[in-house]
Structures are given as structure tokens and as C-alpha cells.
Design goal:
Strand order of the largest sheet: 3-2-1-4-5
Strand content: 5-15%
Order of helices and strands: HHEHEHEHEHEHH
Radius of gyration: 20 Å
Helix content: 40-55%
Largest sheet: 5 strands, parallel
Shape: globular
Distance between the termini: 62 Å
């Protein structure tokens, strides 16, 4: 395509230029491939990078500020993240799966490159069915590592193309867990406004009144 600098990494032919145009936000997308000349080189390099959808799976009962932070950081690395709400057979959920999907969607409203889905069965079956390979896990500390490493090994065993990427939690969010939020909010009536998105706070208040 005429006018596109050859030294910009990732842009090699007309089909790749078209892909760049397609992933730009509508407000920034050029009218034609020729108009890419008007974009600065940093923007070109950024959008030319291949997007690899990553899956961040969990019960998210409920979603916390820690979950949201991990999801957005994963999105910034891979270009797209799917928050996948899956059942946990060892836990009795507070919120239904549909409620959890809706709460996550509300908490991430306005964010690009994120979507929420739900699934049953093995996580690797979802990956295989949707041709996905990258799993995201947040690590709060050493206590999480053994459990998460075991899960990563099992996922790899059942689906050889699965790769797990660990992201350390922010230090100010490393104490957070959904179970702790449920306990202190419902059993003790504590203020958890600094621990969860506002939509989750409202949903917890509604649960307390029942």
C-alpha cells in the first residue's frame, strides 16, 4: 500500500494493512489504507501487533477489584481478554452464573478489548472449541502458587496447546478474595466498598436485605 513506511514492524502487505485498519477504534480509523500515513508511527506499531485473545476464567462470586485489575492488565498485554464465568463444584455460589456475568459486564462497561462469557464443563474444552490457547491467572502470593501450578499442569495435560500466564496481583489488592468479601459483607455487615466495583456493592446490599 502506497505511503506506508516499510520500517514499521508488523506491516508487510496489503492484507496486514487492512487488519490494522479494522482493529482501530472507529473514531481513529482512517477512511482508507492510504490515510494510514497520517497516523504516527507509535500508533501503527501498537495496532499492528497481533491480538491474542486470552481467557481469564473463574467463578467470580463476586468479581472483585483484584479480578478487574488482572483482567485489564491482561487486556493491555494480549489485546483482548475473555472473562469466563465457570462453575466451582466445591463452592455453593452466592450469585447465579447469569448474575455474575451481568455484574462483570457492568463493572467493565465502557472498556474495550474485554468480553464476558460463561461455560460449563472443563475449561480446556472451552479453549479447544473456541481455538483459544492462553490462560491468565492472578497470583496473590506464594500460597496461590502450588494450586495454580497444579491447575496449569492439568490444563496442559488435557490440552497440549494451553499456556498459562501468571500475573502478580498489585500489592494493595493482594489480600482480596471473593470468599472474604462474601463473609465480611454478608455475615458481619462490613463496608467492602474499597474491595469491589460499585455494581457488586449494590448487589451485595440487595442480598443482605433478603
Amino acid at each position: 500500500v502506497a505511503g506506508v513506511k516499510k520500517e514499521v514492524p508488523g506491516l508487510h502487505d496489503a492484507s496486514e494493512i487492512s487488519e490494522v485498519v479494522s482493529v482501530l477504534p472507529s473514531s481513529e480509523a482512517p477512511a482508507s489504507a492510504d490515510d494510514l500515513m497520517s497516523l504516527n508511527e507509535t500508533k501503527l506499531v501498537s495496532v499492528a501487533r497481533k491480538i491474542i485473545p486470552a481467557v481469564y476464567a473463574g467463578s467470580f462470586d463476586p468479581v472483585t477489584n483484584g479480578h478487574i485489575d488482572i483482567a485489564l492488565r491482561a487486556r493491555d498485554i494480549f489485546g483482548e481478554v475473555i472473562l469466563l464465568v465457570i462453575p466451582n463444584a466445591s463452592k455453593q455460589p452466592l450469585f447465579t452464573q447469569e448474575e455474575r456475568v451481568n455484574l462483570i459486564a457492568e463493572a467493565l462497561k465502557g472498556q474495550t478489548g474485554v468480553r464476558v462469557e460463561k461455560a460449563e464443563g472443563l475449561l480446556v474444552d472451552y479453549l479447544r472449541k473456541n481455538n483459544l490457547h492462553v490462560l491468565i491467572r492472578g497470583l496473590r502470593g506464594a500460597s496461590d502458587l502450588d494450586h495454580e501450578m497444579m491447575n496449569a499442569h492439568y490444563n496442559k495435560m488435557f490440552f497440549s496447546q494451553a499456556e498459562t500466564v501468571f500475573l502478580p496481583c498489585r500489592s494493595d489488592l493482594s489480600f482480596l478474595s471473593s470468599s472474604a468479601v462474601r463473609a465480611v459483607a454478608l455475615k458481619y455487615g462490613a463496608d467492602v466498598s474499597g474491595m469491589v466495583p460499585s455494581c457488586v456493592l449494590s448487589a451485595l446490599e440487595a442480598k443482605k436485605k433478603r
